[in-house]
Amino acid sequence: MRWLVGWSSIAASFGTVGAVGHDDEGRTVHPVGSQLLWGDPDPLWAVGDWRPDEIRVITVATPEGAPTTRLAVLGCCGATDEQLRVGLLAARGGALRHLTAWPGSYTAVVQIGRRITVAGDLAGARPVFHTPWANGTAYATAALPLADLIEAQLDIGHLAALLACPETPEALGDGTPYAGVRRIPPGHALILREGSREITGYEAVASLAVAAPQTDPVSAVEGVRDALVEAVRARLTAPRHAPETLPPDPGPVPGMGPAERRAARGAPVPGIGSDLSGGSASATLALLAAGLPGLPGTVLGHGTGAGERLLAVTFNDLSTPGREDELERARVIAANPRLHHVVVAAGEEALPYASLENGPLTDEPAPSLVVAERHRRRLTAGSADHLVGHGARQVLDAHPARLADLLMDRRRRHLLRPVAALARAEGPSAHSLFVPVAVYRAARRLARTSYRTGLESAAALLPGANRYAPDLDTPAEASLAALTWSRPGPAARWLTGEALAEVAVRLQEAAIRPTSVQRPGEARARAALARHAAGQRILEQAAEVRSQRLHAPFLDNQVVRAARSLPESLRVQPGARAAILRRVLAGAGIHDLPPGWGTPSQATSNAAGRLGLRTALPELIALFDAPLLADAGLIEARVVRKALRAASEGEPLPLDGLAALASTELWLRRLVTRRGTCWTGTAAPRQRAVAGGVVPARRTLQP
Q1: Average pLDDT taken over every residue of the chain
Q2: What pLDDT score does 699 carry?
Q3: What is the rounded CA–CA span in Å between residue 282 and residue 314?
Q4: Angle CA 375–376–379, to nearest 5
Q5: Are strands 69-77 and 104-112 parallel, antiparallel or unpaired?
């Protein structure tokens, strides 16, 4: 786990040389295993196993006595030193957007005198947290270190909102699972001036009354292509890395080559690689990385390096049939001579819920904790720098609520194709005849519902979510449920009435709070992206392989920004993501794609989840025998155990909800059994986050 941390306080100087920071009583405190980037009065550290090329500090020469002007960029950034210097000068004049326009995924921190600016990203994959401390404000890119710093208790109300309404920012607010630690929203920056705190947005917000000018579809797709190519190029042009330490090779093993033996030892392959699942997102990244033209030192200007082939990893789940077509598409794509194809086969040991007893403590809970072992097996066979296609669905696809945006702009004819596709997905039945009318009515209702009315209606319905939560079995039912300002999450049906009532209070308070309201479809799409990006961040921590970096180019700022310029009429068409990525590849000179490319495969993941739940049922029942969530008053253990047994027997229950409950309970147990702290020094916290190490029993939830 890697993070940066710093703070700004009222004191003009601590009287030190900058080796450590001080609290308000002059005692020293600094993070364990840290690298000081700059010192007092507003110190900044990088903590964890950062690579040398992932930390860049640019300082602009200023006249003697002028304020210090410098920029720290941490992560993968494709900008040159001169571009960073220009961005620093622009940020000094207040143009913060320049800090987020470079290719790659990174966090930028600017210091201009006593003013500190920390820019978050657009998706939420690189968040920024802050908390009051020592007559000032401490900030970090991880919440747990700040919770340690202030010895925070758990925020049970936030955990309730995370389970009840995970894709509703109004319910989550700016909170975290730790009381007193706050998160800045995606697309915003944290500005500190001698301890004072300000959060400002750097991205323009669409008007609710006037439709934004529509970008030409061809130009918009070209923008996505250019952004995606630059994102991949930023990874390819970065210095290559080999694993720092390799366990000793036991020698030849029958049936195993060098790559298989290395994966068995838990070490990635040196160089760069990519997922190749057979889907459109991972295939696009693999093909771009393998054939991106114009890279120096390559044969004929193509490929990932001179004589080097891109490692493409395909995961073959032997326990769940039904992925034969997807695996065949991956095999056809891997026939490209610039790809070296590796298939990782696994059985029941890689199902969801496998090896729950193993795994690190992550910054926050997320449903991805129950599939961490599944991903770790695939990633161990990958490269030191590994591209993944996560986020493409949320960035490129149209959220169903965007149908309401089309009605607000009086573009009714663009609803014909998506509504007809939903009717076809229902199959030949009498019910499918009513799908177009039902979807149109729901979209019109959402278009005519104000933000305040929508949240108040959701708050009124939320306390009954544990009795009337729908089973979203078909695409049409899921789309109808998504055509609203807010809806309960899949885990809401198993929360207690008290927990749901407290989350409803949060929604009611948010409804009357002044805010810059976006269009319903755009707002729901951004919330879904932020939720997915947060889950991707936790997955990287939970499935982390030593000396490996995961790169998700679809979550980069420039890719997200380019995708937002896509016209809504283009997004809502059936198969829009696959069509956009096909045109992206065509623009890069790649035309030969296998039949069925871009076909969704959600059904197989649901089958794997149900089989994994059935296989791990004894461990899950033991996990909820005396759950901490029940001690906090969020669930009734008996009800959850009954639901686990019913789901394992095939009852159509939302598996995502059960995964969210299991992940949160697992995270709580890892948190309360944790030892140590992130800080050292004479003022180091005396105890870890969640002071006392227990969850208060039946405590009153705070909204």
Answers
A1: 86
A2: 45
A3: 10
A4: 85
A5: antiparallel
616 has pLDDT over 60: yes
Residue 695 has pLDDT above 60, yes or no: no
Backbone φ and ψ of 335, nearest 5°: -65, -10
Verify cis geometry, omega within 30 degrees of 0, for the bond prior to 169: no
Sequential DSSP letters for 517-552: ---HHHHHHHHHHHHHHHHHHHHHHHT--TT-EEE-
Nearest by Cα to 5 from 72, 63, 92: 72
pLDDT value at residue 390: 94
Residue 241 near residue 270 (C-beta atoms within 8 A): yes
| pLDDT at residue 216 in the model | 86
Describe the strand order of the beta sheet including 55-59 as a list of residue ranges: 55-59, 69-77, 104-112, 115-119, 188-193, 196-201
For the segment 285-298, what is each residue's pLDDT rounded down to a tens digit?
Answer: 999 998 875 443 33
Residue that the structure tokens 């410098």 belong to: 70
Q: Do the Cβ atoms of 188 and 197 come closer than 8 Å? A: no
Which pair of tokens denotes residue 161? Answer: 């909102």
Tens of pLDDT, residues 78-94: 999 999 999 999 998 88
Q: Is residue 693 over pLDDT 70? A: no
Residues 436-462 pLDDT 10s: 888 899 999 999 999 999 999 999 989
With beta carbons less than 8 A apart as the criterion, state whether 304 and 236 touch: yes
Asked if 489 and 165 touch (Cβ cutoff 8 Å), the reply is yes
Q: How many CB atoms lie within 10 A of CB 388?
A: 26
* CA gap 283, 288 in Å, rounded: 8
Distance from the Cα of residue 346 to its chain's centroid: 26
Task: Select from 457, 465, 458, 445 the least CA-distant residue to 401.
Answer: 445
Task: Write the CA distances from 510 to 112, 119, 376, 496, integer angstroms.
Answer: 35, 25, 39, 22
Q: What is the DSSP string of 8-37?
A: EES-S--SS-SSSEE-TTS-EEEETTEEEE
Q: Per-residue pLDDT tens for 416-437? A: 888 887 777 766 665 667 788 8
SS3 content of the chain, % helix, strand, coil (to 5): 45, 15, 40
CA 373 to chain centre: 18
Cα→Cα distances 10→14, 133, 439, 482, 694, Å: 10, 11, 56, 46, 34
At 362-395, the pLDDT tens digits run: 999 999 999 999 999 999 999 999 999 999 999 9
Enumerate the β-bridge partners of residue 70. Answer: 59, 111
CA 407 from centroid of its chain's CA atoms: 30
Q: Is the separation of the CB atoms in 268 and 386 below 8 Å? A: yes
- Given a cut of 80, is residue 307 above it in pLDDT? no
DSSP code of 461? H
Residue 503: strand, helix, or coil: helix
Quote the percentage of the chain above a pLDDT of 90: 58
Residue 167 contacts residue 480 (beta carbons within 8 Å)? no
Ramachandran assignment for 581, one of left (phi > 0), alpha (psi -120 to 50 degrees), beta (any other): alpha
Kindly indicate the confidence band of residue 667, based on its pLDDT and cuts at 50, 70 and 90: very high
Q: How far apart are CA 546 and CA 1, in angstroms?
A: 10
Closest among 399, 497, 517, 407 to 455, alpha carbons compared: 517
Quick one: pLDDT at residue 18?
40
